[in-house]
Amino acid sequence: MPFSNSSELSPSFLLASIPGLEAAQAWVAIPLCSAYVLALLGNCAVLLVVRAEPSLHAPMYFFLCMLAAIDLALATATVPRILCFYWFGSREISFGACLLQMFLIHTLSAVESSVLLAMAVDRYVAICHPLRHAAILTNGATAKVGLLAMARGVLFFLPLPLLLLPLPFCGSRALSHSFCLHQDVMNLACANTTPSVVYGLTAILLVMGLDAVLICLSYLLILKAVLRLAAWRERLKVFSTCIAHICVVLAFYVPLIGLSVVHRFGKNLAPLVHIIMGNVYILVPAVLNPIIYGVRTKQIQRRILSLIHVTDRAPR
Fold this sequence. Notes:
Layout: E1 3-4, E2 12-14, H1 25-52, H2 59-88, E3 92-94, H3 95-128, H4 130-136, H5 139-157, H6 159-164, E4 168-169, H7 182-186, H8 194-227, H9 232-239, H10 243-265, H11 271-296, H12 298-313
Antiparallel strand pairs: 1-4, 2-3
């Protein structure tokens, strides 16, 4: 039955169920919920540790807190709604709620990309211009970078739901993911979507694409500076300060690229592939980021272990 966002009936979309496992979705949701809880605990722990540990009050760790806050917001904007569907059968999502979720996902992803670029610049300045690092990346400058990253994400991705708002939708209402993405919703429109396609691709290239290029450029300059050092041990010691950030960059961009490839070339792939890639894109960075920095940062390790130790010794 055709429907339009201007119809008297409340327009809605249908979230994608797991093919062949519809009867067991409540059980499938358990590992998804576990990953979400792990993401909540890990990122909240990072925020609390950095706040409580004065030695971590530095730009790199403030950027890490920004990542943790973004991952918490991104996971919370999607996973609870997915769990409502898997556990309570609430498959239908309204047009307005879908556009809001889509806006949050794309905007927060853009902000995370900007913060990752800022962290790469922080590593570049710390390694290549160590004497100027404290003067360039002050706490005030770090806060301004965070605000600019948020403004950049909102300005670039606010037009996406606005371009979809006047479009009529007809035919199938079924999405290919358990949450709303721009390209997924756009494909259900029964009108010319060329402006939306062009703008969406332009926004992705000017934000995530440009950030990825600049991150690679930063690491080329870092590598060039590291190779100038005489001793291999010194080279490894300096470059090891970048390992955690490189892993976090890969945890963000690999699922992003994978999801983009699935949308662009995976029309003939099984629906399960789309669902898995979508969930990986949402949850993998949120789960891995605090683990990566927890393993690589001794101050965070010590603080968390001390908290666990105090908890274990507390009287019961």
